[in-house]
Structure formats: C-alpha cells, structure tokens
Amino acid sequence: MKPDDPLLRILACPLDKGPLHLLAADDGDGEALYNPRLRRRYPVVDGVPQLLPSSGEQVPEEEHERLLARAAGAPGTAP
Question: Which of 2, 23, 30, 47 has its CA at 20 to 30 Å from residue 10's CA atom?
C-alpha cells in the first residue's frame, strides 16, 4: 500500500469507524494501519488491509508511543 493510495481516505477502523494511520514497514515491523484512539494495529498482508476486528491487536503504552512517532512522520497519515 502506498502513502498516496486513495483507498486510505475511505478505510476506517472496524470498531470505532474512525480514520487510520498507515505505518510503512520499518525495523522488522510489517506494514500496518493504526488506530491511536483504541491503540489497535491492523496488519496489511500483500497490500491488503486486514480490517476484521479479530485481526487487530491491542498495543501496550510503550508501543503506542513508538507507533505515534512513526505515524507522525508518515506522509500518508490520515487526519
């Protein structure tokens, strides 16, 4: 998935229906979509977002801070 992909504008978290932040593959982490409001990360597998509620994983506080920093630097971050 590319940061300028128009699909990013319409993708939403399956739980709170809010926007998601694209996290590019970095430091051994795969590409993912992140919801900072619920602290949930959804994987992107072979370019396909896995947006089932059961596909998301809750992240701990330290990981949340790291992911927020990654999302802040990503050009495809949703508002």
Answer: 30
